[in-house]
Predict the 3D structure of the following.
Amino acid sequence: MDIGRLELLRELADRGSITAVAQATRRTPSAVSQQLKILEREAGVPLTERAGRGIALTSAGRALARTAADVATAIERAEALWADFRSQPRGEVTLTIFPTGGQMLLPGLLTAVDGMPGLTLHCNDLDHLVADAAELTADFDIVVADSPGLLPSWAERGLIAVPLMREPLDIALPQNHPLGTKAELTPADLINETWIGVPKELPFDRILRGIEASNGSPARIAQRFVDNGIVESLVAAGHGIAVLPRFTTQDRENGLITRPLVGVRSSRLITVLMRPDRAERPSVRVVVDALRAGAAEVENAHSVT
């Protein structure tokens, strides 16, 4: 049954005449009568009967009018709840992030969210399981991705992209490596080195492609891993050098050192990706704001070290 026609029946129960309903709802009496006749056909039983010069509700009509009141109350309650939901950061938010991004940003983010009553944040690190993190926006409210920059494919998908920070990527060396005497490294310094790389097409592999292009020769890649912890261990053990992120690489008292790379753009952009409808939710917006604040704290902390 149509909710609008049910509401007309309820108005008839309250106001007592077609004319009064028409005036209250800014319709003509004939339009009201027509809608009530359609409702009667939908109900399958008479809802009104003649009463003198006017009409009155039958017992079935009165029962359906009470149901219409219940429906109207439920709708008002739902609309009030939705209005409250849209104006307050409440409910559940799902987020996925790449591992080193989680290492940097999740501790502070979860602390911030813990202080927000009614908001629950569910996080995981599925980023490395897909070629394009944007694919995960179908399943998560917030996707935190790393990339060389803002990708055209994100705009083509109609996604909202909120840049959080740009993190330098450095060259990681074994602690006693001869290149450790240099303050910064160029692609020419890295010719003939053995590399511990990442799977092809991941952001760090782009840096190796740039080094190869600058040197005019292919890099010698011994192993490829997604997990930066494994890469750090292999570099520290002397099995090769690697590209690693500056803010999360453990380069003190663990057998490796890092040096900036010049001559090839060596950084990654960390970005929040969202579907536009999800980006409108207050709960999602407040989590994104907390991510932006956390990213600024990370950048500030490293700018003074």
